[in-house]
Input
Amino acid sequence: MHIPIFPLGTVLFPGGVLPLKIFEQRYLDMTKACLRDGSPFGVCMIREGRETGSPAVPAEIGCIARIREWDMPQLGIFLLLCEGGERFRLGAREQNASGLLLGEVELLPPAAPAPAPPEYERCVGMLKAIVEKIGADKLPSAPAWDDTAWVAYRLAEFLPLEAGARQRLLEMDSADLLMGVVAKLLRQQGLAI
Output
């Protein structure tokens, strides 16, 4: 799969939402092409560099982003709401004339949906309490309480973590390991797990 890559100072998880304000010409062109073709782009956390200016060096593992909603409140600015899809590994990359990074990506298999083991039921309960407080309409899709990876990703989005810690969670292939680390982070934050 050959897609545009958007290096950001944040991490997008599968099933998560990402609001973006697009104003750089290379990303305006990318957005127009994605809207025209119904195609996705890749979001990778920045390893080196900055979000604006010369292209940043992206992390190797990223997440497919699909535009769910868009608005153009003024000429030259797109407001996007994107949803996270599959995780991917970034391979060969090139930069086009406008400075947009394009990359070959290999989709990574999702963790098989599996109920949270009994020791993580309190994590599921905590997420249910958060969703009840903020409203299920704030989630990109219907809750998947019986999917360990989905629960762990949503909790990781709510935890006050640095981008590097979120990236390490995104890179985990095992839903059980992911949930175990998220549960440990919750305990370290002093939350009732």
